[in-house]
Amino acid sequence: MTRYAMNEALWRYAREPDFRARFDENPGQAISESDLSEAESAALSKKDIRSIFALGAHPFLIYSFAIAANGGWSFEFMTDYVGRLEGLELDDIET
Question: What is the distance between the alpha carbons of residues 81 and 83, in angstroms, rounded to a whole number?
């Protein structure tokens, strides 16, 4: 697993508008140079929050990624986000 690379991609998506635009247009291309496993690349490309969490990404970075992917925060977003992660337990988040 390459947690650092996955966390970096999440951070860049949330913080770098140019990266986010490239990712939204072609996720595979945007993360092609990252040191990600196939599972990590697939989860990121699909914006599969539950899988990204299960793969060990840092919860704060996942949350920031999800807000950016949603176009901002709302109560509806928060309800959906919590529902997607329901039942998962926080594992070791050290990078």
Answer: 5
Q: Kindly report the pTM of this predicted structure.
A: 0.86
What domains appear along the chain, each with residue ranges and CATH number?
3-85 (1.10.700.10)
pLDDT tens digits, one per residue of 43-66: 999 999 999 999 999 999 999 999
Distance CA 75, CA 77 (A): 5
3-state secondary structure the chain: CCHHHHHHHHHHHHHCHHHHHHHHHCHHHHCCCCCCCHHHHHHHHHCCHHHHHHCCCCHHHHHHHHHHHHCCCCHHHHHHHHHHHCCCCCCCCCC
> 31 and 9 in contact (C-beta within 8 Å)?
yes
Hunting for tokens 């690349």 — which residue is that? 41
